[in-house]
Amino acid sequence: MLKRNLCASLMAASVIVFPVERAQADRGAALLGGALLGGIIVNEINKNKRRRTVSSGSSAAYSAQRAQNRQVQTALNYFGYNAGTVDGSLGSRSRAAISQYQAQMGFNPDGGLDDYERDFLLGSHQRAMASSHVAPYNQIVAQQGPAGLLRTYRNEQLGISTTTAVQPAPAPAPAPAPVPVATAPAPQPMPAPTPAPAATPAPTEPVSVTTRSDNASLPSFTFGQADRSVSQHCSEINVLTAANGGITAPGRVTDSEFALNEQFCLARTHAMAESNSITATIPNLTEAQIEQQCQGLAQVIKPQLSALPTARPDMVISDASAVLQGSGQPMAQLISGGKVCLGVGYRTDNAEMALASAVLLSAAGQLGYGEAVSHHMREGFGTAQADAAKSGAWMSLALNAVTSTAGAAVMGQSQDRVAVLQDASQGSASGGASAGLPVFPAPSGN
């Protein structure tokens, strides 16, 4: 009894000596006010951060992985990518099928599925099971096979509408019966008017043939320039990529501008997927609330966006870095918020928000995001369109960071993607593959 009481006393003392500390939320940034960087997003991220620590020897995890692999193989086979036997083991044949699927969808064909690519494949398969027999999808299957459904679902996700089935024309309505028309009585002749006495004409003043109303004038309108849509741009690029049989591979860059646009849209897809994975861990904020905070980020970084057309990348980054340092927020917190808003900007087609997020991330030390800044400047999304030298400086900054620093790759910057970016950037800086002195056939001498 004495021993039991002694243990209980020791436990109670330990509770008194070591109280449980309650986490406190970071204070809002003085400079950034109520914007995204106020700390609320990342605090929720930290509280709800998912930890994927699955033991390799866990039989339950192994079984779940095999089951997911079988779903992947089944979906690949359905859409015409031969993954072989559905056994739950992703061997060389399955990897080749995955690469084929990725290439035709405009993803990076590395043979390994990220969460976005896997979810899209499996979700499309489930959708095909439910919709392949109804119009207009049954017509697509009849004309293009199951692979046509996958392309159609991708296009719908990109905002390209699917042509609906042609409905039979309605039967013409019967012609109305003729309505009898009453014959009007013949008009009676009018008596001839009595001629009035001739009046002496008054003197007249000459009339100008150019006389016009005082209110008449040529139309004068003020036309505003509509912002370019990144979403529409990437929809067009992805359609052309699919028509070409897949994304441009390293060593096969023939159109530098098109290859850079492919990489831009691929980076955009990765940015949205990363943003979605982070926001999924924030249960206490709605999408509208997150978007509102991201609007604040765009306003804070707006002075640096205005400097992009004229200032060097290091100057813009230095100015933006001073803003981040002055906010008083931890750098990791700022980076997480920037990743959230980069995807939100692309998802809501707000080019300025996405560009501001990429500048913020670059200023926070994530120089690989300079690729996104370069794409925006080259195409004029969220800023004035810049020449190849200005946009190329940001691309060089990003590529140097990725190739010289381990772990610096962002937005899916794999080795293949970096190789294409390097080839295309060199071609773009020199004016493209077709640039050079004119070449004419030698004269025949006649």
From TrEMBL:
SUPFAM superfamilies: PGBD-like (SSF47090). InterPro entries: Peptidoglycan-bd-like (IPR002477), PGBD-like_sf (IPR036365), PGBDSf (IPR036366). Pfam families: PG_binding_1. It comes from the Bacteria. Residues 169-179, 186-204 have a biased composition (Pro residues). Residues 164-214, 427-446 are annotated as: Disordered. Residues 70-114 form the Peptidoglycan binding-like domain. This is Peptidoglycan-binding protein. It comes from Arenibacterium halophilum. The lineage of its organism: Bacteria, Pseudomonadati, Pseudomonadota, Alphaproteobacteria, Rhodobacterales.
